[in-house]
Amino acid sequence: MSLGALLRLALRALAVNKLRSALTMLGIIIGVGAVIVMIAVGSGAQARVEEQIRALGSNLLLVMSGATTSGGVRLGFGSGFTLSEDDAAAINRDIPEALAAPALRGGAQVVWGNTNWSTQIFGVTPEYLDARQWLLASGRVFEPAETAGAGKVAILGQTVAKQLFGSADPLDQVIRIKRVPFTVIGVLEAKGQSMLGHDQDDLILMPLATARSRVLGTASAAKQRSVGTIWVKVAEGYDTRAAEEQVRSLLRQRHRLQPGADDDFSLRNLAEVMAAQEASSRVLTLLLAAVASVSLVVGGIGIMNIMLVSVTERTREIGLRMAVGARTRDILGQFLVEAVTLSLIGGIAGVTIGLGASYAIAGFAGWRILIAPEAVALAVAFAFAIGVFFGFYPARKAARLNPVEALRFE
Amino acid sequence: MAETLIHTRDLVKLYPMGDGEVRALAGVSVDIARGEFVAVMGPSGSGKSTFMNLLGCLDRPSAGEYALAGKRVSDLGGDELAAVRNRSIGFVFQHFNLLARTTALENVELPLVYAGVATRERRDRALEILARVGLRERAYHQPAQLSGGQQQRVAIARALVTRPLLILADEPTGALDSRTSLELMGLFQELNRQGMTILLVTHEADVARFAGRVLRFLDGRVVGDEANAAADARRLLGAEALAA
Fold first, then answer.
1. Residue B191 within a domain
2. CB contact under 8 A, A407 and B113
3. With 90 as the cut, is the pLDDT of residue B75 above it?
4. What is the ipTM for the molecules in this complex?
């Protein structure tokens, strides 16, 4: 019999017991649907992580100054003042492949007209924007004179601009930070939330010297040149691990640390942190998909069960078909195609439902989803394979029936 | 004497049962010529059904020889036997064995499907045969919508559609009332007159009397083989109509 004829025969046989066929498919529908949803949500999360890595730059090192102790209380990294602008300058001078940008951070209240907003202040050098790959939406960066002379200029993040100015243009307006007037010279492009849900647009950038002397106010002479963090961007194509080691040994040498002594700073390779996060999200996706595919196997067993029932119920039909000339392979084909039809229809329905559920999740929960055509094709192929695998035994049982006994079966 | 269609020599069939085995056929040697109408009689367990199954290539003999139209079939493989059943033999069963929820036409087409005949030709031939058994206008009815006699005629049409060498009928009247049985025997006699070889298994003498030859089985052996002056079913039907 031709495949088309077998398919028609299978559809007709399945239509006889519509409810039974539908219930049998349900296992496959749920299995395929779950796999599709898991892969859509999982790869969506993965794509987001990858995008963040790309946004952050895959070649970024973060140096934070060491911990300090205040009255017996040890504070975290960045609280001490072990790093200085000179460290950054030394990195820029000694390691040509690295671009170091020092930053000093603090909080302050910002006022414009009758509105005010509490935000983070970053004292930085113009290299900072380069290092972090931040772009300006409008305006300009600090000029060398402003950097050197502690000019009272500020670059706003999108959130600050919106909170203070609403729809008005912030450029050239004067805002007050701790009663000091600053001219807005630029606005950053929106960067959205960080991976930890932190708003990366809620900040103000200003020259490092301005921040130190006017806003964040570390008066002590010893700390005159200290900074909290140094971002180091490694040139494209240069090994970040090598750069990491170079920066580490340079800083140790500059800080006169004995061999064996702990670093008085913390040095992190962000790409590696991100890569680890990406790997864990990939593992999670795989794990979820594997769990979902268990229900596919259960669905397959359901198909096998029903096909065995069907073969028994139709023993006389099988006997008759053999009597009028059906060969072993005709009977085998008939029941195999029936099982595969069950699983394939279930698979296609599962894909439809899985896609619908994925889009619903994207819509309601606001999660990012990513539907790869290969994943869909793979799920359908898997359903097909389940049909063949679990349909084979019942079909072979049917094909091996003895025609005499089959015809006499009550 | 016409050419021999069925030739068996010392046909033996053993069935394993418990520790030993049952001798369903204990050496049967029969020759049947083309165009004969033979009734196979015997009590249940006499081996007549086993004999039919072997003739129908549904089963293989344990020993002995069976040739159909000069071709030894006792040592053919499974698919070859299926091909013989498909092309050379038409089966008629006691319980009709029609596919439910399937039209008379499709039931009749079934053997042609396995013979690989194209759809169009299949349809034409099936309709033609249905017309021959008087069911042309019921072609699109399903078995449940047909009477027992009509169902059995659909089954006969299915048996005839591949233009087989012989028809094997196993208690074909077993599920029918006497009048319908008579009509059916009339149809068999008509087919036989047109040259079809028919073997009919029955335990009713009433049915066997329409055959031209009667084989009697007992304990797996042929114990009687005699010619029979066949009664004419058509004429009997006419007489019954007069009596009514």
1. yes
2. no
3. no
4. 0.92
